[in-house]
Amino acid sequence: MKKSTTGLLIGSALVVGLSGCATSANQSSGQASASSSDRSWYQHPAVCGLAGSLIGGSIGYATSSSSDEDSGAATGAVAGAAIGGLLCADRTPEPVAPQCPTYGEVPAGVAVDAQGCPLDSDNDGVPDYRDQCPGTPAGVEVDAVGCPLDSDGDGVPDYRDQCPNTPAGTEVNALGCPDSVVLQDVNFEFDSAQLTANARDILNGVAERLVNNPDVRVSIDGYTDSRGTAAYNKGLSQRRAESVTTYLAQRGVEANRMRAVGYGEENPIATNETDEGRALNRRVEIDEWN
């Protein structure tokens, strides 16, 4: 049999084999779950390159003249190796990172934004289609279903709760308190209705929770100890209660939701015979106003 015929037959057989390897490799690459370690040994680019070299060399040898057989075989081997390696190259597409990974799998038909992420109208981190409490104010911490946290489970969320650590099972009012609550450390300058700096800091938190609880009206009640005349104490406590309501109004609480009442030395909660007791009696309380 002539050299050219022999070379072409060998080359043709190798071409068929290489084509099968390349086809299998491409099919494996097209599967999303496939990886380079899942491929058969004969689908590796190095093996295909070797087979391509044999094919190219055989064809180059068969098609060259007797005077340049060596160079023809060499050229064909190099070209065949390159083509074989390319045919069996791993074309598995790189995995695409999810655009909105925090939302998990998004059901069909869910409204999305320009980036393809589910809408979250109140920006609480829970998309609208899962949010059971839409319209949560900005910055309020929420649970997995988008509802404001209620740490003590009293039905009044923390961002509105004036008494956030109520014991379990205690009945509370709309302020989240079982009864009127003393505004601890809301104090005044000596013998005046001027709020101290520390008192203003405390009232800032009270005001924030009242602003977030717009359907509730409150009574601000002022008290004194028993030193001085009853009439004077009554007037001083009234001015102090009014000072608190004025400050709360400046912080955004509607004035028509509040009333100020001065009780003077009435309803003491401690003895007036000691400094400690009198300090406890000089107080401001907040309660729901029905």
Automatic annotation (TrEMBL):
GO terms for biological process: cell adhesion. It is found in: Cell outer membrane. InterPro entries: Bact_OuterMem_StrucFunc, OMP_bac, OmpA-like, OMPA-like_CS, OmpA-like_sf, Thrombospondin_3-like_rpt, TSP_type-3_rpt. Residues 1-24 form the signal peptide. GO terms for cellular component: cell outer membrane. Keywords: Cell outer membrane, Membrane, Signal. One of its GO terms (molecular function) is calcium ion binding. Residues 175-290 form the OmpA-like domain. This is OmpA/MotB.
